[in-house]
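Standup notes
- DV: blocked on the single-chain target, sequence here:
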Amino acid sequence: MSNTPVAIDLFCGAGGLSQGLSDAGFDVIWGIDHSEEAVQTYRANHDGVAIKRNIRDVDPDGGIELAEDDKVPSEQVARFDIGPSDVDLIAGGPPCPTFSRVGRSKIGSVEGTSPEEDDRHELYQEFLRFVDYYDPGAFIMENVPGIINSENAGGRIVSDVIVSEMEAIGYNVDVYVVDAADYGVPQRRKRAFFIGNRLNRDNPNLKHWQTHREPEDDNETKLKRTGTVGQEQETVQATMEEVVSGDVPDFDEIVPEQPRKSPWITVGQAILDLPPVSPGGPTSDDSNFAIPEQATEYQMEPLTEYQEWARDVDESRDEALTNHRSRGHNMYDLSLYKLLGEGVGWDIGDVGQDLQPYRQDIFEDKYKKQHPRKPASTIVAHLEKDGHMFIHPREARSLTVREAARLQSFRDSFEFPVPLTKAFKIVGNAVPPRLAEVLGKALLEELFDVNRTDQKR
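- DV (later): unblocked, structure below
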Protein backbone atom coordinates (compact mmCIF):
# COMPACT_ATOMS: atom_id res chain seq x y z
CA MET A 1 0.00 0.00 0.00
CA SER A 2 1.03 3.61 -0.39
CA ASN A 3 1.59 6.55 1.94
CA THR A 4 -0.52 8.66 -0.39
CA PRO A 5 -4.33 8.55 -0.27
CA VAL A 6 -5.62 5.26 -1.66
CA ALA A 7 -8.50 5.02 -4.12
CA ILE A 8 -10.45 2.30 -5.93
CA ASP A 9 -12.41 2.80 -9.15
CA LEU A 10 -15.79 1.09 -9.55
CA PHE A 11 -17.29 0.87 -13.05
CA CYS A 12 -13.79 1.89 -14.13
CA GLY A 13 -14.20 1.58 -17.91
CA ALA A 14 -10.99 2.31 -19.77
CA GLY A 15 -9.64 4.17 -16.75
CA GLY A 16 -10.12 7.87 -17.49
CA LEU A 17 -11.15 8.61 -13.92
CA SER A 18 -8.30 6.49 -12.55
CA GLN A 19 -5.81 8.25 -14.83
CA GLY A 20 -6.86 11.69 -13.65
CA LEU A 21 -6.88 10.72 -9.98
CA SER A 22 -3.44 9.15 -10.37
CA ASP A 23 -2.13 12.27 -12.06
CA ALA A 24 -3.53 14.31 -9.18
CA GLY A 25 -1.69 12.22 -6.59
CA PHE A 26 -3.97 9.35 -5.52
CA ASP A 27 -2.76 5.76 -5.46
CA VAL A 28 -5.53 4.05 -7.45
CA ILE A 29 -4.96 0.42 -6.44
CA TRP A 30 -7.50 -1.30 -8.69
CA GLY A 31 -10.52 -0.98 -10.94
CA ILE A 32 -13.50 -3.19 -11.71
CA ASP A 33 -15.83 -3.25 -14.71
CA HIS A 34 -18.16 -5.69 -16.50
CA SER A 35 -16.79 -4.97 -20.00
CA GLU A 36 -14.01 -7.22 -21.28
CA GLU A 37 -12.74 -4.56 -23.67
CA ALA A 38 -12.74 -1.87 -20.98
CA VAL A 39 -10.85 -4.09 -18.54
CA GLN A 40 -8.36 -5.05 -21.24
CA THR A 41 -7.72 -1.35 -21.91
CA TYR A 42 -7.47 -0.54 -18.21
CA ARG A 43 -4.92 -3.31 -17.70
CA ALA A 44 -2.81 -2.06 -20.59
CA ASN A 45 -2.54 1.41 -19.06
CA HIS A 46 -2.70 0.83 -15.29
CA ASP A 47 -0.17 -1.88 -14.38
CA GLY A 48 -2.60 -4.68 -15.15
CA VAL A 49 -4.68 -4.10 -12.03
CA ALA A 50 -8.31 -4.45 -13.09
CA ILE A 51 -10.80 -7.30 -12.97
CA LYS A 52 -13.86 -8.12 -15.04
CA ARG A 53 -16.90 -8.61 -12.82
CA ASN A 54 -20.59 -7.92 -12.61
CA ILE A 55 -20.39 -5.73 -9.55
CA ARG A 56 -23.65 -7.21 -8.23
CA ASP A 57 -21.81 -10.51 -7.80
CA VAL A 58 -18.89 -9.05 -5.82
CA ASP A 59 -18.86 -9.13 -2.02
CA PRO A 60 -15.96 -7.02 -0.70
CA ASP A 61 -16.19 -8.59 2.76
CA GLY A 62 -13.00 -10.54 3.33
CA GLY A 63 -11.23 -9.17 0.27
CA ILE A 64 -11.79 -9.60 -3.46
CA GLU A 65 -11.31 -13.18 -4.62
CA LEU A 66 -9.14 -13.46 -7.72
CA ALA A 67 -9.03 -16.12 -10.41
CA GLU A 68 -6.38 -17.02 -12.96
CA ASP A 69 -8.46 -15.39 -15.69
CA ASP A 70 -8.12 -12.05 -13.88
CA LYS A 71 -4.50 -11.87 -15.05
CA VAL A 72 -3.45 -9.81 -12.05
CA PRO A 73 0.36 -9.76 -11.80
CA SER A 74 1.58 -11.66 -8.74
CA GLU A 75 3.23 -8.58 -7.30
CA GLN A 76 -0.12 -6.76 -7.43
CA VAL A 77 -2.35 -9.40 -5.82
CA ALA A 78 -2.01 -7.81 -2.37
CA ARG A 79 -3.80 -4.74 -3.66
CA PHE A 80 -7.09 -6.66 -3.49
CA ASP A 81 -6.56 -7.82 0.10
CA ILE A 82 -8.09 -4.74 1.71
CA GLY A 83 -10.81 -3.99 4.18
CA PRO A 84 -12.50 -1.05 5.91
CA SER A 85 -10.11 1.82 6.72
CA ASP A 86 -7.71 0.75 3.92
CA VAL A 87 -9.38 3.00 1.32
CA ASP A 88 -9.47 6.80 1.39
CA LEU A 89 -11.53 7.44 -1.72
CA ILE A 90 -14.04 5.42 -3.73
CA ALA A 91 -14.66 6.76 -7.22
CA GLY A 92 -16.83 5.57 -10.06
CA GLY A 93 -19.51 6.24 -12.61
CA PRO A 94 -22.33 3.70 -12.40
CA PRO A 95 -24.03 3.61 -15.83
CA CYS A 96 -27.47 5.16 -15.75
CA PRO A 97 -28.61 5.44 -19.38
CA THR A 98 -32.26 5.87 -18.47
CA PHE A 99 -31.40 9.33 -17.08
CA SER A 100 -29.82 10.41 -20.36
CA ARG A 101 -31.91 11.72 -23.26
CA VAL A 102 -29.52 10.01 -25.64
CA GLY A 103 -29.60 6.86 -23.56
CA ARG A 104 -33.39 6.64 -23.47
CA SER A 105 -33.64 7.08 -27.23
CA LYS A 106 -31.07 4.36 -27.90
CA ILE A 107 -32.19 1.71 -25.42
CA GLY A 108 -35.09 0.44 -27.49
CA SER A 109 -33.38 0.55 -30.90
CA VAL A 110 -30.01 -0.83 -29.84
CA GLU A 111 -30.79 -3.15 -26.95
CA GLY A 112 -34.38 -4.21 -27.55
CA THR A 113 -35.63 -3.01 -24.15
CA SER A 114 -37.55 -0.02 -22.89
CA PRO A 115 -36.20 2.51 -20.36
CA GLU A 116 -38.72 1.19 -17.85
CA GLU A 117 -37.28 -2.33 -18.24
CA ASP A 118 -33.65 -1.19 -17.92
CA ASP A 119 -32.39 -1.65 -14.34
CA ARG A 120 -28.98 -0.02 -14.72
CA HIS A 121 -30.32 3.12 -13.06
CA GLU A 122 -30.14 1.14 -9.78
CA LEU A 123 -26.40 0.50 -10.03
CA TYR A 124 -25.66 3.54 -7.87
CA GLN A 125 -26.87 1.36 -5.00
CA GLU A 126 -24.02 -1.06 -5.72
CA PHE A 127 -21.64 1.88 -5.58
CA LEU A 128 -23.05 2.84 -2.18
CA ARG A 129 -22.75 -0.77 -0.99
CA PHE A 130 -19.00 -0.56 -1.50
CA VAL A 131 -18.85 2.87 0.15
CA ASP A 132 -20.77 1.56 3.14
CA TYR A 133 -18.42 -1.41 3.51
CA TYR A 134 -15.04 0.27 2.98
CA ASP A 135 -16.06 3.45 4.83
CA PRO A 136 -13.66 5.74 2.94
CA GLY A 137 -13.03 9.31 3.98
CA ALA A 138 -14.63 10.49 0.74
CA PHE A 139 -16.26 9.37 -2.48
CA ILE A 140 -16.95 10.88 -5.87
CA MET A 141 -19.67 9.48 -8.15
CA GLU A 142 -20.00 10.63 -11.76
CA ASN A 143 -23.19 10.51 -13.81
CA VAL A 144 -25.14 12.16 -16.61
CA PRO A 145 -26.73 15.56 -15.85
CA GLY A 146 -30.19 14.12 -16.48
CA ILE A 147 -30.00 12.37 -13.14
CA ILE A 148 -30.48 15.71 -11.38
CA ASN A 149 -34.08 16.37 -12.39
CA SER A 150 -35.32 12.92 -13.38
CA GLU A 151 -38.13 11.35 -11.37
CA ASN A 152 -38.29 7.75 -10.23
CA ALA A 153 -41.34 5.53 -10.47
CA GLY A 154 -42.66 7.03 -7.24
CA GLY A 155 -42.42 10.58 -8.52
CA ARG A 156 -39.40 11.59 -6.41
CA ILE A 157 -36.41 13.44 -7.85
CA VAL A 158 -33.74 10.80 -8.37
CA SER A 159 -30.82 12.94 -7.19
CA ASP A 160 -32.68 13.73 -3.95
CA VAL A 161 -33.17 10.01 -3.33
CA ILE A 162 -29.50 9.28 -3.97
CA VAL A 163 -28.30 12.11 -1.72
CA SER A 164 -30.60 10.96 1.10
CA GLU A 165 -29.17 7.43 0.85
CA MET A 166 -25.62 8.81 0.88
CA GLU A 167 -26.37 10.92 3.93
CA ALA A 168 -27.95 7.93 5.67
CA ILE A 169 -24.58 6.11 5.69
CA GLY A 170 -22.81 9.09 7.23
CA TYR A 171 -21.65 11.40 4.46
CA ASN A 172 -21.93 15.13 3.87
CA VAL A 173 -22.90 15.37 0.19
CA ASP A 174 -22.92 18.03 -2.52
CA VAL A 175 -23.92 17.67 -6.16
CA TYR A 176 -22.40 19.65 -9.02
CA VAL A 177 -23.02 19.76 -12.74
CA VAL A 178 -19.87 20.81 -14.55
CA ASP A 179 -18.76 21.29 -18.15
CA ALA A 180 -15.46 19.59 -18.97
CA ALA A 181 -14.50 22.53 -21.22
CA ASP A 182 -14.18 24.65 -18.07
CA TYR A 183 -11.44 22.31 -16.81
CA GLY A 184 -9.08 22.19 -19.78
CA VAL A 185 -10.82 19.50 -21.86
CA PRO A 186 -11.35 20.45 -25.54
CA GLN A 187 -14.95 19.30 -25.43
CA ARG A 188 -18.35 20.54 -24.24
CA ARG A 189 -19.28 17.70 -21.92
CA LYS A 190 -21.62 18.26 -18.98
CA ARG A 191 -21.55 15.74 -16.17
CA ALA A 192 -22.96 15.47 -12.65
CA PHE A 193 -20.69 14.69 -9.71
CA PHE A 194 -21.84 13.61 -6.27
CA ILE A 195 -19.09 14.39 -3.76
CA GLY A 196 -19.36 13.07 -0.20
CA ASN A 197 -17.08 13.04 2.82
CA ARG A 198 -17.26 11.98 6.45
CA LEU A 199 -14.27 14.11 7.50
CA ASN A 200 -16.31 16.98 8.94
CA ARG A 201 -15.22 19.18 6.06
CA ASP A 202 -17.01 21.21 3.43
CA ASN A 203 -16.82 19.51 0.06
CA PRO A 204 -14.82 21.35 -2.62
CA ASN A 205 -16.79 23.88 -4.61
CA LEU A 206 -15.94 22.70 -8.11
CA LYS A 207 -16.70 26.09 -9.63
CA HIS A 208 -13.69 27.47 -7.76
CA TRP A 209 -11.45 24.97 -9.53
CA GLN A 210 -12.31 25.95 -13.08
CA THR A 211 -9.24 26.60 -15.23
CA HIS A 212 -10.91 27.71 -18.47
CA ARG A 213 -13.82 29.85 -19.61
CA GLU A 214 -15.91 30.72 -22.61
CA PRO A 215 -14.20 33.27 -24.89
CA GLU A 216 -15.24 36.79 -23.99
CA ASP A 217 -15.27 38.22 -27.51
CA ASP A 218 -14.41 37.48 -31.12
CA ASN A 219 -10.81 38.59 -30.60
CA GLU A 220 -10.23 35.55 -28.40
CA THR A 221 -11.47 33.26 -31.11
CA LYS A 222 -9.18 34.73 -33.77
CA LEU A 223 -6.67 31.97 -33.92
CA LYS A 224 -2.96 32.55 -33.88
CA ARG A 225 0.16 30.52 -33.60
CA THR A 226 1.74 30.14 -30.19
CA GLY A 227 5.18 29.53 -28.74
CA THR A 228 8.06 29.51 -31.22
CA VAL A 229 6.01 28.37 -34.20
CA GLY A 230 5.54 31.83 -35.68
CA GLN A 231 3.93 35.21 -35.37
CA GLU A 232 0.22 35.97 -35.45
CA GLN A 233 -1.13 36.31 -38.97
CA GLU A 234 -4.78 36.93 -39.65
CA THR A 235 -6.31 35.56 -42.81
CA VAL A 236 -9.73 35.37 -44.38
CA GLN A 237 -9.45 31.73 -45.36
CA ALA A 238 -9.55 29.08 -42.62
CA THR A 239 -6.00 27.68 -42.53
CA MET A 240 -3.76 25.99 -39.99
CA GLU A 241 -2.85 29.44 -38.69
CA GLU A 242 -6.49 29.97 -37.79
CA VAL A 243 -6.87 26.79 -35.80
CA VAL A 244 -3.96 27.27 -33.42
CA SER A 245 -4.78 29.96 -30.93
CA GLY A 246 -4.95 31.49 -27.55
CA ASP A 247 -3.33 30.81 -24.24
CA VAL A 248 -3.66 27.42 -22.64
CA PRO A 249 -2.84 26.59 -19.01
CA ASP A 250 0.29 25.00 -17.67
CA PHE A 251 -0.88 21.40 -17.58
CA ASP A 252 1.39 20.61 -14.64
CA GLU A 253 -0.20 23.20 -12.38
CA ILE A 254 -3.83 23.58 -11.34
CA VAL A 255 -4.64 26.53 -9.12
CA PRO A 256 -8.13 27.23 -7.76
CA GLU A 257 -9.62 30.69 -8.19
CA GLN A 258 -7.17 31.67 -10.92
CA PRO A 259 -7.36 35.44 -11.47
CA ARG A 260 -7.33 34.99 -15.23
CA LYS A 261 -8.66 31.81 -16.80
CA SER A 262 -7.71 30.77 -20.31
CA PRO A 263 -10.28 30.51 -23.12
CA TRP A 264 -11.65 27.05 -23.87
CA ILE A 265 -9.34 24.72 -25.78
CA THR A 266 -10.56 24.05 -29.30
CA VAL A 267 -10.73 21.08 -31.63
CA GLY A 268 -8.02 22.61 -33.79
CA GLN A 269 -5.70 23.16 -30.85
CA ALA A 270 -6.22 19.56 -29.79
CA ILE A 271 -5.95 17.42 -32.93
CA LEU A 272 -4.80 19.22 -36.07
CA ASP A 273 -1.17 18.25 -35.58
CA LEU A 274 -2.11 14.60 -36.18
CA PRO A 275 -1.29 13.26 -39.66
CA PRO A 276 -4.08 13.01 -42.26
CA VAL A 277 -5.62 9.59 -42.80
CA SER A 278 -8.14 8.49 -45.38
CA PRO A 279 -10.99 5.96 -45.63
CA GLY A 280 -9.90 3.23 -47.98
CA GLY A 281 -6.38 4.61 -48.34
CA PRO A 282 -3.23 2.45 -48.42
CA THR A 283 -2.81 0.36 -45.28
CA SER A 284 0.68 1.76 -44.76
CA ASP A 285 2.19 5.21 -45.21
CA ASP A 286 4.92 4.00 -47.59
CA SER A 287 3.42 5.88 -50.51
CA ASN A 288 4.46 9.51 -50.96
CA PHE A 289 1.38 10.25 -53.04
CA ALA A 290 -1.57 8.69 -51.21
CA ILE A 291 -3.01 9.45 -47.79
CA PRO A 292 -2.86 6.20 -45.80
CA GLU A 293 -5.69 4.60 -43.90
CA GLN A 294 -3.56 4.56 -40.75
CA ALA A 295 -0.67 6.71 -39.52
CA THR A 296 1.81 5.48 -36.90
CA GLU A 297 4.29 8.38 -36.91
CA TYR A 298 3.94 12.11 -36.36
CA GLN A 299 4.63 14.16 -39.47
CA MET A 300 4.98 17.63 -37.92
CA GLU A 301 5.91 19.27 -34.65
CA PRO A 302 3.17 20.16 -32.15
CA LEU A 303 1.79 23.65 -32.70
CA THR A 304 0.06 24.27 -29.36
CA GLU A 305 0.83 23.56 -25.73
CA TYR A 306 -2.05 21.11 -25.60
CA GLN A 307 -0.65 19.14 -28.52
CA GLU A 308 2.80 19.17 -26.91
CA TRP A 309 1.29 18.00 -23.63
CA ALA A 310 -0.61 15.20 -25.38
CA ARG A 311 2.54 13.85 -27.03
CA ASP A 312 3.98 12.04 -24.02
CA VAL A 313 5.23 9.05 -26.01
CA ASP A 314 8.69 7.83 -26.93
CA GLU A 315 8.80 8.69 -30.62
CA SER A 316 11.67 6.27 -31.20
CA ARG A 317 9.48 3.22 -30.66
CA ASP A 318 8.14 1.27 -33.64
CA GLU A 319 4.74 2.97 -33.50
CA ALA A 320 4.96 6.39 -31.89
CA LEU A 321 1.29 6.99 -32.70
CA THR A 322 -1.42 4.41 -32.00
CA ASN A 323 -5.15 4.17 -32.72
CA HIS A 324 -4.98 6.72 -35.54
CA ARG A 325 -6.82 4.77 -38.25
CA SER A 326 -9.70 6.03 -40.36
CA ARG A 327 -12.87 4.01 -40.22
CA GLY A 328 -14.48 3.08 -43.51
CA HIS A 329 -17.13 5.29 -45.12
CA ASN A 330 -19.21 4.75 -48.20
CA MET A 331 -19.02 7.29 -51.00
CA TYR A 332 -22.48 8.61 -50.24
CA ASP A 333 -21.58 9.56 -46.67
CA LEU A 334 -18.32 11.12 -47.80
CA SER A 335 -20.24 13.25 -50.30
CA LEU A 336 -22.60 14.45 -47.56
CA TYR A 337 -19.65 15.22 -45.29
CA LYS A 338 -18.26 17.59 -47.92
CA LEU A 339 -21.50 19.60 -47.99
CA LEU A 340 -21.24 20.56 -44.33
CA GLY A 341 -19.53 23.75 -43.22
CA GLU A 342 -17.49 24.07 -40.02
CA GLY A 343 -19.61 23.35 -36.98
CA VAL A 344 -22.68 22.72 -39.14
CA GLY A 345 -24.99 19.81 -38.42
CA TRP A 346 -28.00 18.18 -40.05
CA ASP A 347 -30.77 16.06 -38.69
CA ILE A 348 -31.46 13.38 -41.24
CA GLY A 349 -34.94 14.84 -41.59
CA ASP A 350 -33.42 18.17 -42.64
CA VAL A 351 -31.75 16.59 -45.63
CA GLY A 352 -33.78 16.50 -48.82
CA GLN A 353 -35.49 13.19 -49.51
CA ASP A 354 -33.29 12.67 -52.55
CA LEU A 355 -30.19 12.97 -50.33
CA GLN A 356 -31.36 10.97 -47.34
CA PRO A 357 -29.28 7.82 -47.00
CA TYR A 358 -31.40 6.36 -44.19
CA ARG A 359 -35.06 6.11 -43.24
CA GLN A 360 -35.92 8.88 -40.78
CA ASP A 361 -38.59 6.73 -39.08
CA ILE A 362 -35.89 4.22 -38.06
CA PHE A 363 -32.70 6.27 -37.62
CA GLU A 364 -32.38 9.46 -35.61
CA ASP A 365 -28.73 10.01 -36.44
CA LYS A 366 -27.35 13.43 -37.21
CA TYR A 367 -24.42 14.69 -39.23
CA LYS A 368 -22.09 17.29 -37.74
CA LYS A 369 -18.72 18.59 -38.79
CA GLN A 370 -16.70 19.64 -35.75
CA HIS A 371 -15.66 23.28 -35.62
CA PRO A 372 -11.88 23.79 -35.41
CA ARG A 373 -12.19 27.02 -33.39
CA LYS A 374 -14.55 25.66 -30.74
CA PRO A 375 -14.46 22.78 -28.26
CA ALA A 376 -15.86 19.52 -29.62
CA SER A 377 -19.42 18.46 -29.00
CA THR A 378 -19.84 15.71 -26.40
CA ILE A 379 -17.97 12.56 -27.38
CA VAL A 380 -20.45 9.70 -26.94
CA ALA A 381 -20.37 5.92 -26.92
CA HIS A 382 -22.57 5.90 -30.03
CA LEU A 383 -19.33 6.40 -31.96
CA GLU A 384 -19.25 2.62 -31.82
CA LYS A 385 -22.10 2.62 -34.37
CA ASP A 386 -21.05 5.44 -36.69
CA GLY A 387 -19.14 8.71 -36.73
CA HIS A 388 -21.64 10.99 -38.45
CA MET A 389 -21.80 13.39 -35.48
CA PHE A 390 -18.02 13.69 -35.37
CA ILE A 391 -16.83 14.62 -38.83
CA HIS A 392 -13.26 15.88 -39.00
CA PRO A 393 -13.13 19.67 -39.50
CA ARG A 394 -10.65 19.45 -42.39
CA GLU A 395 -10.83 15.93 -43.83
CA ALA A 396 -13.75 14.05 -45.41
CA ARG A 397 -14.07 11.38 -42.73
CA SER A 398 -15.13 10.92 -39.13
CA LEU A 399 -12.71 11.13 -36.24
CA THR A 400 -10.21 8.40 -35.44
CA VAL A 401 -10.02 6.78 -32.01
CA ARG A 402 -6.88 8.80 -31.28
CA GLU A 403 -8.59 12.07 -32.19
CA ALA A 404 -11.62 11.21 -30.05
CA ALA A 405 -9.25 10.29 -27.21
CA ARG A 406 -7.42 13.62 -27.56
CA LEU A 407 -10.75 15.44 -27.32
CA GLN A 408 -11.45 13.44 -24.15
CA SER A 409 -8.00 14.57 -22.85
CA PHE A 410 -6.31 11.17 -23.03
CA ARG A 411 -2.63 11.64 -23.81
CA ASP A 412 -1.10 9.77 -26.73
CA SER A 413 0.64 7.19 -24.53
CA PHE A 414 -2.80 5.88 -23.47
CA GLU A 415 -3.52 2.97 -25.82
CA PHE A 416 -6.75 1.23 -26.72
CA PRO A 417 -5.72 -2.35 -27.65
CA VAL A 418 -9.21 -3.49 -28.65
CA PRO A 419 -11.22 -3.59 -31.90
CA LEU A 420 -11.92 -0.16 -33.36
CA THR A 421 -15.64 -0.09 -32.65
CA LYS A 422 -15.14 -1.15 -29.02
CA ALA A 423 -12.41 1.45 -28.63
CA PHE A 424 -14.81 4.18 -29.76
CA LYS A 425 -17.37 2.98 -27.22
CA ILE A 426 -15.03 3.00 -24.22
CA VAL A 427 -13.56 6.36 -25.23
CA GLY A 428 -17.06 7.82 -25.39
CA ASN A 429 -17.99 6.36 -21.99
CA ALA A 430 -14.87 7.61 -20.23
CA VAL A 431 -14.48 10.41 -17.71
CA PRO A 432 -12.01 12.88 -19.26
CA PRO A 433 -8.70 12.41 -17.39
CA ARG A 434 -7.99 16.14 -17.37
CA LEU A 435 -11.31 16.83 -15.63
CA ALA A 436 -10.68 13.95 -13.21
CA GLU A 437 -7.25 15.37 -12.37
CA VAL A 438 -8.72 18.73 -11.38
CA LEU A 439 -11.34 16.99 -9.23
CA GLY A 440 -8.65 14.83 -7.64
CA LYS A 441 -6.51 17.82 -6.75
CA ALA A 442 -9.52 19.58 -5.27
CA LEU A 443 -10.24 16.55 -3.07
CA LEU A 444 -6.60 16.16 -2.01
CA GLU A 445 -6.21 19.77 -1.00
CA GLU A 446 -9.58 20.49 0.57
CA LEU A 447 -10.44 17.13 2.14
CA PHE A 448 -7.17 15.28 2.69
CA ASP A 449 -4.79 18.20 3.40
CA VAL A 450 -2.19 16.66 1.10
CA ASN A 451 -0.91 20.00 -0.15
CA ARG A 452 -0.93 21.45 3.36
CA THR A 453 0.42 18.70 5.63
CA ASP A 454 1.09 15.80 3.21
CA GLN A 455 -0.81 13.52 5.59
CA LYS A 456 -3.71 11.14 5.08
CA ARG A 457 -7.05 11.98 6.69
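- Follow-up: The radius of gyration is 22 Å.
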